[in-house]
Design a protein that fits this description.
single chain, alpha+beta, five-stranded mixed sheet, 22% helix, globular
Amino acid sequence: MQKTMKSKISFVGTGLHSGKPVTMHIHPSDVNTGITFVRTDITDRNNVIPANYLAVNDTQLCTRICNDAGVEVSTVEHIMAALAGTGLNNAQIDIDGPEVPIMDGSSLVFVREILTAGLFDQHAPVRAIRILRDIEIRFDDVVARLSPADNLEIDFAIDFEDAIIGKQQKTLNMANGTFVRELSDCRTFGRKRDVDALRAMGLALGGSLDNAIVVEGDKILNPAGFRRADECVRHKMLDALGDLYLAGAPIMGRYTGNRAGHRATNELLRALLAQDDAWEWVTCDAKLEHDLPGSDLKTSDFPL
């Protein structure tokens, strides 16, 4: 069944790049309305932005979406991952600034509040996108691919020169709460020299050791260290799930990413959905719905 929120939930935080305070509310929404963002601070033109892969207009440092009136919201990937991973299909997200609050740099806070508030069954079937044949994009040393599979699987590999990260690879079947248990608490990360360069450009002004992992060579600068030994590749998987949910529906297929990021996932969705013979709509029966990422969640699934 499609799901929406049982009640409104709210978040107050700062934007990662602006460092400015932002308030965000997630409201229940009607069947088949999907996920939409509303910029409540803008009233002189259309302020509704669809959470859709075609609305993506920048992927350099995060995923940013924009409507036809030029109204934007950036860093949507962590909240989109939380919605996908908890099986929330319909929601209106009101936000009074241009960036989703970064919170602790993961989806942890979003997931906790969604599960605490609870989801409401809307008595309408979920439609999913089933992958029928391989679609792949490549550029530089980046590879991203979608392949047929019974449900959503994510296989990701990263390779950094910093010894504290190095080469990491992980594969997870995302069915039945895997995201909540295995990925939702994994934070964004960066190298100190890159963070310093971004700040010199007036970016990452809201970033700190409270909302990002910062590494330098063979050291992690966060006093508490990693939450998981392979937290960095797990965060890349989190990002991938959030970016994939901009397809507008759950995906049934295997996503493979090698050094991939927001640009690669968005280009992959554009390539996939432009080819009618590469995918199909599937109306999920109880068996198929059971294997979606947000199905059959229990309180004990939460990592805290």
